[in-house]
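Good morning,

Attaching, inline, the backbone tokens for the sequence recovery test we're adding to the shared suite. The designed sequence is right after.
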């Protein structure tokens, strides 16, 4: 492992160690305030629970979201060589262009929520340069085919993770107080399913969906490919970084780093459904 990778890994461990639990006093005060409002207790359902959780995250009884940001990370996947998606990898670049032109569903949702949108290219095949709304740190043009070899090296995984903390630090400094994160990349649901199976020990058939709407035969092929990869690479359930290196994606790595980053003004992170295959 080179010196840069050692620094990236040390930064990751420091970020994980710095994660704090929810503020119990702020949550108790938020619950008390809910009970004092003119409404039946619990009548707002999940919204009440979310407001209490938000109070614990922001460490204040009356939380607020003033500068939300949606972050969509992108990366391509070598596992698409195994026919796991209904679409070719070129669609990843097409979707990136769509995000930047404002034509995707996530653009509509972000606007409706009053949130800004930032796209990250952590490892796609697209040849887009940085521009307003797009940050590029292409660790590699797509991962390797994890049906045959690890998706990435440990140094590459750490580099993608480090990209995430750089962006998170910059956005926190600009006053962002809520992150909604999602990712795009043809083959990404295969990678995500393989990660879930590796980390939970569940059979691929139980944690694998149809991604881009593949048929029964393609879904069975997808599950077989994941099973073969797990048997070949043997990612351990007790080492998330090893699992990420074996079957993960660069966009997943970038978002994982964002989720562990201890922002100067703690803010919540929400996830969105994946877009890809």
């Amino acid at each position: 492992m080179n010196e840069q990778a050692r620094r990236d890994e040390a930064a990751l461990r420091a970020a994980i160690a710095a994660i704090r639990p929810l503020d119990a006093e702020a949550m108790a005060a938020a619950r008390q305030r809910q009970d004092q409002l003119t409404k039946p207790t619990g009548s707002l359902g999940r919204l009440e629970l979310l407001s209490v959780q938000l109070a614990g995250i922001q460490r204040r009884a009356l939380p607020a979201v003033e500068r939300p940001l949606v972050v969509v990370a992108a990366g391509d996947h070598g596992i698409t060589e195994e026919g796991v998606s209904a679409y070719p990898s070129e669609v990843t670049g097409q979707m990136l262009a769509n995000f930047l032109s404002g034509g995707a569903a996530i653009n509509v949702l972000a606007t409706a929520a009053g949130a800004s949108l930032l796209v990250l290219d952590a490892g796609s095949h697209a040849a887009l340069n940085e521009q307003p709304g797009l940050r590029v740190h292409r660790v590699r043009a797509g991962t390797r085919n994890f049906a045959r070899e690890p998706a990435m090296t440990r140094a590459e995984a750490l580099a993608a993770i480090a990209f995430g903390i750089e962006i998170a630090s910059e956005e926190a400094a600009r006053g962002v107080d809520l992150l909604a994160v999602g990712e795009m990349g043809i083959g990404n649901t295969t990678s995500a399913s393989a990660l879930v199976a590796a980390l939970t020990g569940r059979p691929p058939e139980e944690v694998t969906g149809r991604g881009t709407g593949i048929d029964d035969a393609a879904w069975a092929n997808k599950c077989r490919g994941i099973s073969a990869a797990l048997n070949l690479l043997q990612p351990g359930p007790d080492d998330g970084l090893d699992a990420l290196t074996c079957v993960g994606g660069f966009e997943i790595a970038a978002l994982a780093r964002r989720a562990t980053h201890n922002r100067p003004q703690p803010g919540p992170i929400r996830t969105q459904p994946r877009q890809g295959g």
